[in-house]
Specification:
The complex is a heterodimer of chains A (323) and B (254). Chain A is built from eight helices and 19 strands. With 323 residues, chain A is an alpha/beta fold. Chain A is elongated, with a radius of gyration of 22 Å. Chain B has two domains: 2-204, Rossmann fold (3-Layer(aba) Sandwich); 222-254, no CATH class. Chain B is built from six helices and 13 strands. Chain B has helices at 37-53, 68-77, 95-106, 128-136, 190-196, 235-248, and strands spanning 2-6, 9-11, 33-35, 56-63, 81-86, 113-117, 140-150, 153-159, 164-171, 174-178, 201-204, 214-220, 229-230. A nine-stranded mixed β-sheet of chain B has the order 9-8-7-10-6-1-4-5-11, with helices on both faces. In chain B, helix 2 (68-77) packs across helix 5. Classes of the chains: A alpha/beta (323), B alpha/beta (254). At the A-B interface, helix 4, strand 7, strand 9, strand 10 and strand 13 of A face helix 3, helix 4, strand 7, strand 9 and strand 12 of B. Strand 14 (194-195) of chain A pairs antiparallel with strand 9 of chain B.
Chain lengths: 323, 254
Amino acid sequence: MILVIAEQREGKLNRATWETIVGAQQLAAALSSDITVLVPGASVGSVAAELAAAQVKEVVTVEHAALEPYTPDGFTAALQDAIGQLAPSHVLLPHTYQTRDFAPKLAARLDRALLTDVTGIKTAGSEPAFVRPMFQGKLTADVVPQGPAPHFVTFQIGAYRVDQVAKGSAPAPVRALSVTVDASVIREKPEAPFQQAKQAVDLSQAERIVSVGRGIKEQANIALAQQLADALHAEIAASRPICDAGWLPMERQVGSSGQTVAPKLYLALGISGAIQHLVGMKGSSTVVAINKDPDAPIFEIADYGIVGDLFEIVPAIIEAVKQ
Amino acid sequence: MKIAVCIKQVPTREWQPRLNDDKTWIRDQDASFEMNEPDAYALEEALRLKEKHGGEVVVCSAGPARVAQVIREALARGADRAIHVEDDGLASADAFTTSGALAAAMQDEKFDLTLTGLQSDDQGFAQVGVILAEKLGQPHATIIMEVQIDGAALRVKRELEGGWFQWVAMPLPAVLTIQSGINQLRYATLKGIMAAKKKEIRKAGVPAGLSGKQKIASLYVPEKGKKTQLITGSPSEAAKELVRRLRDEARVIA
């Protein structure tokens, strides 16, 4: 049995769970196995009912007061118990910040393999291999988990498409699984989540975005990118290092820790295309990449590319747009 | 306050990958290496905490002999001493092996706080800090953007997705994985570089019985998902052609 661990907060499902179910359906077909979706939280009935639409064997709720708000100690204790009862061959999760916080602890507690940030499954061989990026996306590896089951796998956000999920002809059965969690094992005391500042710029609504990365070299050169953005009637945005350096405000950051955008045009200037950036913009309709490195991962998802010096190319584009 | 910082040595950003003969790892001898960037932020945070609360900062790294380069750099930036778990096999080790090797060497030091980067720029597991916490029996928090310490109480700002944050309190000792951008990095001064030469680097071996939990069956240059139309020519020709295609073909600009 393949176990998918759903992610929800206060009764709202994280949609990345659906992507993980797509991955689980591919793996289940290859292994002639079936799928159980586990929903951990304090009150998860409606999320479980929503997930029961997927073509899976069953949905299992694990409800416990110690699971909301989320803590790594609470999740590890509850899921260790649940996995012991369910005895899956694989445990699949979306590679969210919450998963990153507890999955390594859970896998270490059980002394089992954990493959993270997986983008696909190769099922042709005698055992499934999991595809994951390495070296900032410059290389890809087919990785095989070692040692006894269950094997833990986390899927990169966007690795599978939500609209590819197979739905069942009737809702899957939902049942409750009870777990024991000793509240005294929980050492973390979380406070309520908050947003740093009201986002003054909503990049998710932008039709065109000019985005800058390390290739812009210094703060003074941001002005050049801004001129291009003005010429294209675009918003300016950046990859994380540019905002870390304070060259553009954090609210202009695109990527897993910033905003997720899907404009008609995304023009990437000097952005290599680290996966943390790509997950935030790969829904864009048309992607243009300008980079001096022909092997930069950004070219894997670009529709149009120019390999060269952006300091020569950008002024030429501004000129061409004005004509 | 006794603070450990776990750092990794990774290929530089400019490095062009070349594979070994059986295509399961890179050709190490062709690569140039540097300190993993998120770990540099963890080191900086440790140095700032020491300046505020006193104590010492101990750099811990697991890797082959070449790792001494980034250890020296960390000592030059202000760390007090170092532990180097040295083994050639650690160059391509998985997170279980690396954290097991670090935990064994760090166990008896009884650190109050352990910091490391949120993930490495080479294998990018994002696991070592969390597994280390579990092996040391300590609480942890990941992707941290601010650290507050008041006696034995620790309060940290955790980054959530999409611009959200959350404060989490926990007792010391604890392990934190640090997000890039938490602070502004300092660079080594000449004085620091000179002082680093006299600082202690304790060598440790890999404990027996550690085995990896994942195997790279093959390593390769990514298969392209989309067919990129590369536009060539002089900057002005390429720019004109790009603008023409964005107007006439993609129809995304006026």
